[in-house]
Specification:
With 149 residues, the chain is α/β, with parallel strands linked by helices.
């Protein structure tokens, strides 16, 4: 089971993928586009990555507001989910991504990445945090389930 994690933004999509056991998330790439609503190439690249990694699930960051409400960015993420489901036929899980970009930025700063170089890594690192959070939740559910038996 491999899972693809996506951090969907207005001009970029950060991409991460799980290892074959579904334990860890690794950064893959950032897909760039010139305009927010020009998604044909972006979706085609995601399909290529799904094929390459033989993914069976997609996790998309769900940027809720800090007060748990749904804003414009979250609405666009839901539309993106619908496009992905329609185009790939795979299940798409929405995952709360609040503060993942902040954590990614902090990680890059602590790693000594220069400010002008951070943007090229920020989205794929945020995708790693999104995907890892999802994978960790699966592991916790499995432990709870195994503990009941």
């Amino acid at each position: 089971m491999r899972v693809i994690g996506l951090d969907y933004g207005s001009k970029t999509v950060g991409v991460a993928v799980s290892d074959p056991l579904g334990l860890t998330a690794q950064a893959v790439e950032t897909i760039w586009r010139k305009q927010e609503n020009k998604l044909r190439r972006t979706l085609a690249r995601i399909e290529e990555l799904i094929e390459e990694y033989q993914a069976d699930t997609i996790v998309v960051g769900y940027p809720k507001n800090m007060n748990n409400t749904i804003g414009e960015r979250a609405e666009k993420s839901l539309e993106f989910r619908d496009m992905l489901e329609k185009r790939t036929g795979l299940p798409v899980v929405m995952w709360d991504e609040r503060l993942t970009s902040v954590a990614a930025e902090r990680t890059l700063m602590e790693s000594g990445v220069r400010r002008e170089n951070r943007k090229q890594y920020l989205d794929e690192l945020a995708a790693v945090f999104i995907l890892q959070g999802y994978l960790d939740s699966l592991a916790i559910k499995k432990e709870e389930h195994d503990g009941e038996n």
